[in-house]
From TrEMBL:
Protein name as annotated: NodB homology domain-containing protein
Cell compartment(s), UniProt: Secreted
InterPro entries registered for this protein in UniProt: Glyco_hydro/deAcase_b/a-brl, NODB_dom, Polysacch_Deacetylase
Organism lineage: Bacteria, Pseudomonadati, Pseudomonadota, Gammaproteobacteria, Alteromonadales
Major location category of this protein: secreted
Length: 317
C-alpha cells in the first residue's frame, strides 16, 4: 500500500470520525529549517515540510486563507485547510517558497515589520546573546539561579518566556544591556527583506499584518497597540503595493494575549477583514471573522499530523 494512499485513508477516517461537519482549519508555522534545531523544535525541515504537504494535499483541499475565511465550505469532499507562517523568517522565502511552488500551493505570511527593517526580532536576539555568552556567567541575565544546569536552548526558552510579556520598551532596554556587556553590535539577518516580501506577494501568496514590534496586544496601551497595527500595515502595504486584509495576533491566545472587546474592532477600523488567533479549533460558518482559530499539531510524523489536524478542525473553539 503506498504511503499517499494510506494517508488518504487516514485523513478520510479522521475527518469522518472527528470532523463530521467538515469545519475548515488553518495551520501555522514559523520556520522551514535547513536542519533540525533545538531552538525551533516545532518547525519542520525542508524535507519534512515537503512530505507534510504531500500528505496534507491528499487529506484536505488546500486554499489561501482569504478563500478559506470567505467560503468555509468543504470542497471536493475534503475539508479546507490553509497554511500560514508567522513573524517573517527569511527561510520562508529560501526554504518554504520552493516547496510551496513544487506543490502548487499558496500560503499567507504574517510579518512583524521591525524584523524586516532590522533583520532580526527580539526572540532571536536572545538566542544570539546566549550563544555569544556560552561559557560566561548567567548573572548577566538577572534571573538569579533560574538558568542553572539548563542547556543553551532551554536557557533561551526560559529567557523568551521571561521577556515575552514585558512592554516593548522594557524588553528592548534589557536586551540592549546584554548586547553592551557582550560587545554585540550587529546580528545576522534572519528575517525577510523588502525585496523577498515583494516576490512572495507577486507569486500570489498573501502578506498579513502581525504588528511592527511583535507586541502582545494585551500588554501595551491602546494607543501603542493602534500605532503598532498601523505602522506595520503601512510598511507592508508600501512594500507590496496593495492593501492588507489579514492579521494574526502575536502569541495569539484570545484569553491572554488580546482583549476581544477592544482589539478586533481596532483591527476593523484599521481596514482588516479577518484576524487569526492561536486557539486550537476549526473554522465554521459560526466563527467570528476577527477571532479565527489556527493550530500547530505537535507531531513529527506527517500522517499523524494529518490525523491530528482533522481532529483539531472538528473542535469548536
Ligand atoms: Zn509571531
Amino acid at each position: 500500500m503506498s504511503l499517499l494512499f494510506l494517508s488518504s485513508l487516514i485523513g478520510k477516517a479522521a475527518t469522518f470520525k472527528f470532523n463530521p461537519s467538515g469545519r475548515s482549519g488553518v495551520l501555522y508555522f514559523h520556520r522551514v529549517l535547513d536542519k533540525p534545531s533545538d531552538n525551533y523544535p516545532d518547525d519542520p525541515t525542508i524535507d519534512e515540510f515537503d512530505e507534510l504537504l504531500s500528505v496534507l494535499k491528499n487529506t484536505f483541499t488546500i486554499v489561501s486563507l482569504k478563500e478559506l475565511a470567505s467560503t468555509r465550505q468543504v470542497s471536493g469532499g475534503k475539508p479546507l485547510l490553509g497554511i500560514s507562517f508567522d513573524d517573517g523568517y527569511r527561510d520562508n522565502f529560501t526554504n518554504a517558497l520552493p516547496v510551496l511552488i513544487k506543490h502548487g500551493l499558496k500560503a499567507t505570511f504574517f510579518i512583524a515589520s521591525q524584523g524586516t527593517e532590522e533583520g532580526i526580532l527580539w526572540q532571536d536576539k536572545i538566542i544570539e546573546c546566549v550563544r555569544a555568552n556560552a561559557g560566561g556567567s548567567d548573572a548577566l541575565y538577572g534571573v538569579g539561579g533560574a538558568l542553572d544546569g539548563l542547556s543553551e536552548s532551554a536557557k533561551c526558552r526560559y529567557l523568551m518566556e521571561y521577556l515575552k510579556r514585558m512592554k516593548v520598551f522594557s524588553r528592548n532596554a534589557i536586551i540592549k544591556g546584554w548586547e553592551k556587556t557582550l560587545g554585540i553590535s550587529s546580528y545576522p539577518r534572519l528575517m525577510l527583506t523588502r525585496e523577498e516580501i515583494k516576490v512572495l506577494s507577486n507569486e500570489g501568496h498573501d502578506i498579513g499584518g502581525h504588528t511592527h514590534n511583535h507586541v502582545i496586544l494585551s500588554v501595551e496601551s491602546q494607543q501603542d497597540v493602534k500605532n503598532e497595527i498601523t505602522r506595520n500595515k503601512d510598511i507592508l502595504e508600501e512594500i507590496i503595493g496593495r492593501k492588507l486584509d489579514l492579521f494574526c495576533y502575536p502569541n495569539g491566545h484570545p484569553s491572554f494575549d488580546l482583549d476581544a472587546d477592544i482589539h478586533p474592532e481596532m483591527l476593523r477600523e484599521a481596514g482588516y477583514s479577518y484576524a487569526f488567533t492561536t486557539l486550537d479549533g476549526g473554522i465554521g460558518k459560526d466563527s467570528d471573522d476577527m477571532l479565527l482559530s489556527r493550530f500547530l499539531p505537535h507531531r513529527r510524523n506527517s500522517h499523524l499530523r494529518a490525523w491530528s489536524s482533522a481532529k483539531i478542525m472538528g473542535e469548536v473553539a
